[in-house]
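To fix ideas, we give here one paired sequence and structure record:
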Amino acid sequence: MQSLFSNLKASGAELEALLGWSNGHWIYEDGPYRFYHQSFKVFALQQSTLAIVSALQALAPDRKLNDWFSQIVSEGTGQEFEHEHNRQWLSITRPIVEAFFHARFFLEMAVRYGKDLDAPPTSLPSGWAAFLYLYNLR
């Protein structure tokens, strides 16, 4: 856990920049809008999700990420729009949005606790505990 924490502290500026980017209009606001608008542009959220996952994995490259998280990301990425997806919109695109939101949540927790904590705490705030689950450390 100390290695993860050290990497988190060292990567704080890059993670904060990534969070700012992912909170921007064309990702955080436009992506979910495109889901409800039934626009193929929702598929662009996949690249954002993968960028976030890559940054999170880099914090602990020797650790496998949480199985549930990995499954959510797997089901919400690797899709290419096809016109017949319009007939199954929810089943095809909801996993894309879900994967983005899960990845963004963990990025937000990384940034928050990377700033707020001076050392790994013994009494765990919920967000920090969730972040540890990502790395199977809880």
User: Anything to note?
Assistant: Residues 2-134 form one domain. The two ends are 10 Å apart (CA to CA). The chain has a mean pLDDT of 96.
